């Protein structure tokens, strides 16, 4: 029986060597920042962490509505012709 470490090494040996350019690494870092920013906006600005219900269907509804609000905010932010809120 192979140990976990041996299985990981075997899996890594099957993967081709990948050489990322500096540009690709910077793009990945920016993408990670964007994900963290959006998650923070979901939690604090849109109330993802405010659910206090007891049912799974209620949680699904809450997460669905918060995700929809996030998508609308992202769309408005991306549209340069959208009027700014007063």
From TrEMBL:
State the species of origin.
Haloactinomyces albus
Q: From what superkingdom does this record's organism come?
A: Bacteria
Under which name does UniProt file this protein?
SRSO17 transposase
GO MF entries: DNA binding; transposase activity
Indicate the segments forming the Transposase IS4-like domain, all copies.
17-69
What GO biological process term is on the record, naming one? DNA transposition
The UniProt entry, under Pfam families, shows: DDE_Tnp_1
């Amino acid at each position: 029986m192979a140990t976990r470490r041996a299985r990981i090494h075997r899996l890594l040996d099957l993967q081709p060597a990948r050489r990322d350019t500096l540009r690709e690494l910077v793009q990945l870092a920016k993408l990670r920042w964007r994900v963290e920013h959006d998650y923070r906006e979901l939690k604090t600005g849109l109330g993802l962490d405010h659910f206090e219900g007891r049912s799974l269907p209620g949680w699904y509804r809450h997460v669905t509505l918060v995700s929809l609000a996030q998508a609308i905010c992202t769309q408005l932010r991306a549209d340069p012709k959208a009027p700014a809120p007063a």
